Each structure stands twice: as structure tokens, then as C-alpha cells.
Amino acid sequence: MPKHKPKRGSPSIDMTAMCDVAFLLLTFFMLTAKAKPQEQVVIDTPSSISETKLPDAGTLTILVGPDGNVFLDMAGQHTRKSLIDDVNSRFQMGLTEEDKVKFSNAGSFGVSRSRLKQYLETEPSQRAKFPSTGIPIDTADVNKSELADWIHNARLAQFRMKQEGKVKDEYVMVVKADKDTPYPAIQKVINTLIDINVNKFNLITDSEADPNKKDAIKGKAEEK
To answer: In degrees rounded to 5, what are phi and psi of residue 15?
Structure first.
């Protein structure tokens, strides 16, 4: 008696569940992602042949604009929150808890302590238009320099966060100046760092090709 062979059909895979998961993940990342705060100053850095790369996180950056105004940006929400708690308590700035949260999530800032509350209460989309004269620097008396105070206390806050295990490393100091920034403005920043015993810092530049390496490659090509 002949055997009956069942009819074979082409297999089908239901992709509905996989598509649902993909769209759920996409929706999750869209809703939870935070846009990078708009910077108050745009820096067009000079170029150099340096190949040293900075870490992606854990930097304390001093920005110096073309007009010489100084701004400060620091990584780490925990560190920023700890810093603003200390500064607000010491100088009686009258910041609310909401203001402190805004500071911990903000980008760079370049205003005096007396105007920081007004700056934080400004809508994030309008902060780039906030009138700013930069963070005050006093090179005659470092104890009166707001920039020196911010840097010193930011490093202390980062150290505390490291002790508590909330961050891995201490801050890497970075100076980022525009190519058109007057040198005396940069010198003020460097003098401030030296006055508070910060003798190791990085200067940010755009990368360009090393002419020596170009000549070496050209020479090898000619030999061949």
C-alpha cells in the first residue's frame, strides 16, 4: 500500500511581535533621551597637530570666547548638584531645589553668582540670548575671583563624588579658547589656575595633519 506524503507548505514566521518590541524600544529611547543643552558661547578653536585625545566624560572645561568672556562647563549631574548646594549655602544665593536641579542639568554658564538665579529661571531655549559678561575673574586677589572659587569647589565636589563611588575619576582640566580670543584673556585664566595650584590642564585645538609626517610619507613614495 503506497504511503501518503503530507503536502509540504512553505514555512512562515510571524514578525508582529518583533516589530512591536522594536517600536517599543524606539519609543522608549525617544521619550527618555535628553537633548544637549544649547551652549551660551560658540568656540572656534585653533588647529594644531596634537594627537592627544581627551576622555569622553569627567572634564571640567573653561571656555573663553572671542570677546574674552569666560564660561564654565562641568560633567556629572551628581557633582554639579553637590557643588551648587555648597555654593548656595555659602553665599546665600536663594536658589530653590528646582533651581539646583536646573543647574545640575544645564550646560555651560557664564554669569556672576548674583545673576545665576535669574539665568536658571530663564527658559533653556532663551539662555543663549541671556546677557552675559562671563564669570568674574580677579587676578589681583584670587580669593575674590569667582572663577577660582567655582573651579576649586567643583574639584572638591568631584572628589567627594569619587569617594562616594558616584564617579570614577577626578576632573580633567580643560581650557577651550577661540582662535580670535585675545591672549591676555587666556593668560588671566592660566594665572587663575596656577594661583589655585592647578598646574596640569589641557588646551583644546582642532586636529590638522602633521607636515613632518606628510613629508615622510611623500619621501617613501618617491623612493619607490
So the answer is: -90, 5
Cα 46 from Cα 177, distance rounded (Å): 8
Spatial distance between the Cα atoms of 84 and 99, rounded to a whole number of angstroms:
9
pLDDT (0 to 100) of residue 217: 47
CA distances from 56 to 34, 59, 99, 187, 194 (A): 17, 8, 27, 26, 25
Integer angstrom CA distances of residue 104 from 73, 76, 79, 176, 221: 11, 8, 8, 21, 54
What confidence score (pLDDT) does residue 194 get? 93
pTM of the model: 0.73
pLDDT tens-digit series, residues 6-29: 666 666 666 666 767 776 777 766
In contact, 80 and 156? CB cutoff 8 Å: no
Region label for 44, one of left (φ > 0), alpha (ψ between -120 and 50) or beta (otherwise): beta
